[in-house]
Amino acid sequence: MNRFRNDLPALSNKDYFNYGGQGPLPKSSLHAITSSWEKIQELGPFTNDVWPFISNEIKGTKSLIAEFCGVTSHRIALTENVTSGCVLTLWGLPFSKGDRLLISNCEHPGVVSACKEVAKRKDLHIDILDVLSLRKGIEGSKENQDEVIKTIEGGLTARTKLVVLSHLLWNTGQIMPIELIANLLLNQPNQPYFLVDAAQSFGQIPIRDSASKVDIYAFTGHKWAFGPEGLGAVVLSERVLLEARPTLVGWKALTNESSIYTNEIEPFHKDARRFEIATSCTPLLAGLRCSLNLLNEQGSDSERINSIKLRSKRLWLELKGVTSINPVLQDPPPAGLVSFTVNSKLSPNQIVKLLAEESIYIRVLEDPIWLRACVHITSTEEEIERLISALKKL
Ligand SMILES: Cc1ncc(COP(=O)(O)O)c(C=O)c1O
Q1: 283, CA 20 to 30 Å: which among 42, 80, 161, 247?
Q2: 51 within 8 A of 202, measured Cβ to Cβ
Q3: What is the pTM of this model?
Q4: Which fold has domain 51-294?
C-alpha cells in the first residue's frame, strides 16, 4: 500500500479527503498516458499505421472496464464523464407525453437538470423519491434497504417510465440496494427503466451485481478509480440497446461511414457504440487501464471496501467525539464518504478555507450545506488525526 501511496504525487504534500470530487492520479498512469501519446505521434497521428494501435487501446480498455462491471464489452460505451453517460442515454429513451420520472432527492445537479429539461421538452412529470431523510449508517443498512424499497414502491405509478438513483449517495454517503430495486422494477407491469449514477461507487464498492442488472450505469474514472479526468463509461442493458435511439449522433456511432447520404437502413451500431460520438483523447485510455490495474493489485473489491470502511469508521467515531461536530449518519458509514456539520461561528466555506491553510482538504456540499471528508485505501491514520485536531482547534 505504501508503494501505491508513494506513486501518488498529489498525496505527498497534503492531507487529502476529496476522493469523491477527484482522486489523485498515479505517476505510473501519467507515464502510461504520455507513452501512449508518444506512440500515437510515432505511428501517426493520422496514418494507416496508427489505427490498429488505437483500436487495441479501445478494445483493451473496454474489456477491463467490462470485467470491473461484470458485463460483456458490447454493453459499454466510453464517455467523457459521469454526466454525459447519464444524459446521452437518458435523452434517447422512448418517452411518451405524460410519462413520469421518479428521481431521488440525492442526485447530482447535472443529472437533475437534464431530467428537468427532458421533462419540459417531452411533456413528462417528475416525482421525487425521498432518500435524503435516511440517516442510518452501516448498522441500519437492512432497515435503510427496506425503507428505500417501501419508498420506491410508494412512488411508482402506472406511468413511471424511468427511475433515477445513485448507487452511493454523494451527500449522505449511503449505499442504495440497486440490485433489489432492479428486481422490483422488473416485476412492475410497465417495467420502468433504471438509471444509476455510479460516480461514487465505481472504484470504491463492489458493483458487478448492480451494474449488470440496471439499464444505465454511468461512471467516471477520475474519482475513486484514480483515473485521469476526461474519461468515463456507461454500461447499458440489452433493452436500452434495442429501444433507445442515439442522441448526440456522430461518426463513431455508425457501422459504415460510406454511402451515408443514400443508405436507407439503420446506420448505427447495435452495441453501446451507438452512444459514442467522435474523436476523443486516446492516451487517457492507457492511464485509466493503468489505474484500474493498480487498484486491482491492492486487493479484491471486497477487501477494498472493508479497508475503506475501517478508515471511515475511525473518522466517524473521531468526529462524533467532538462536541461541536455532528456526523450526518447515526452510525458508521457503509463506505468512504463522511458528511458532517459543525456548530461554529465560522461558515462551512470558512472552515474549508482554514483547513486548506494547513494543507488539509475537505469540501462543502451545497444542498444541504454539509462538510464532507472522504477516505480511500490510501488514507492514513495520521491524516485522519490531523483533520480531527485541526477541526478541534477551529
Ligand atoms: C453523484 C455524482 N454524480 C455526478 C457527478 C458529476 O461528475 P462528472 O463531472 O464526472 O460528470 C458527481 C461529481 O461529483 C457526483 O458526485
Answers
A1: 247
A2: no
A3: 0.98
A4: Aspartate Aminotransferase; domain 2 (3.40.640)
